[in-house]
Amino acid sequence: MNVLERIVERTRDDLRRRREEVPLATLEQALEGRGEDRPFSEALTLPGVSVIAEHKRRSPSAGVIREGATVQDVVSAYERGGAGALSILTENQHFGGSLEDLRAARAASALPILRKDFIVDAYQLYESAAAGADAILLIVAALEPEEIARLHAEARTLDLDVLVEVHSERELERALEVDADVIGINNRDLSDFSVHVERTYELLADVPAGKTVVSESGFHAREQLDELERVGVDGVLVGESLMRAPDPEAALRALTGREGDTGEFAAL
Fold this sequence. Notes:
Blueprint: H1 3-21, H2 24-30, H3 40-43, E1 50-55, E2 58-59, E3 63-64, H4 71-81, E4 85-89, H5 99-108, E5 113-116, H6 122-131, E6 135-139, H7 145-157, E7 161-166, H8 169-177, E8 182-186, H9 198-204, E9 212-216, H10 222-231, E10 235-238, H11 240-244, H12 248-256
Parallel strand pairs: 1-4, 1-10, 4-5, 5-6, 6-7, 7-8, 8-9, 9-10
Antiparallel strand pairs: 2-3
C-alpha cells in the first residue's frame, strides 16, 4: 500500500471505534445547537488570492512541525495576518490532529473553517458539523466515484461547503461529474508526498469557468501568489511553511502582501 491507502485503511478502522463511543444520534442532536454559519466558499471569492491557513501538528514526511504551539495561538496569528479561512487537520494517527483542535479553532477565531481529514463515511460529516466545521475535504484519490457523489450531496444537506481535491486529469473529471463548486488542486502526490507546483497550471486549463479553484501545497512567496492570481486561481492552502515560521502572523502578512513585503516568508 502507498501512504494514502494506509491512512484510509486506518481511518476506516478507527471509525468503528468512534461510532461506538459517540453514536450518530448523539451527533445529530448536537447539530441542533450548531453555531452561526461562516460561508467557506464565499471567503475564496474575494478579490485577490485568498489564503487558507492550515494548522498542522505533524506529517508522515516531516514529523513534528511546531512543538508546544497551541491551536488558539496559531489560528489567532493567522487571523491577524490576513487569512481568508482556516484549515484544521484533524487526522490523529499520522498528523497528530483531533476534533478538539477544530473546536479550539472555532472558539478562537471568527474565520470559516475547513476540516481537513480523510473523509470516507457520512458519519464524519456529522462529526465535522457538530464540531464547528464550515467545510469538509473530499479527496478523490481516496474514494470511489459513487462515494464522492454520496458524500458531496450529504455534506451539502448539512450546510457544509465541500472542497473536492484532485491531483490528475482523471480525478478532475470525477470531481466535475458531481458538479463540485470548489476544486482543490493538490500539488503534493499523496502516494509519495513529493510536491510539484506545476500540477496546478497543468490542470487549471481543464477546469470550467465558474468554478472556484484552490491550489494546495508548495507555496512560500508572494510572487507565487501573484502568478496564481494572474492565471485565475481563487485561493491557496498553505500549512507547513506557516507553521514552521518563527512568527506565523508576520509570515502570513508577507505572503498576502498586507505590509508590502514580497520576500519569502520562510526566511523570516
